[in-house]
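Today's session is about reading a structure prediction critically. Students often jump straight to the picture, but the first step is always the sequence itself: look for stretches that repeat, for charged clusters, for runs of hydrophobic residues. Only then move on to the predicted structure, which in these notes is written as discrete structure tokens rather than atom positions. Here is the chain we will use throughout the hour.
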Amino acid sequence: MSTQALIFMVAVETTVTIITIYFFIKVLRSPGGPGDGDNEEEK
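Below is the predicted structure for this chain, in token form.
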């Protein structure tokens, strides 16, 4: 496996991890759960 492929895989895993943590914290902070009146990012 080439170095570029390894760097790409690490970058993808890091991005997925950051997004997962971001949504986890967002769901934890909103008592109503996900999509409770604060979905202006989706539209």
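Discussion point for the tutorial: The longest helix spans residues 3-29.
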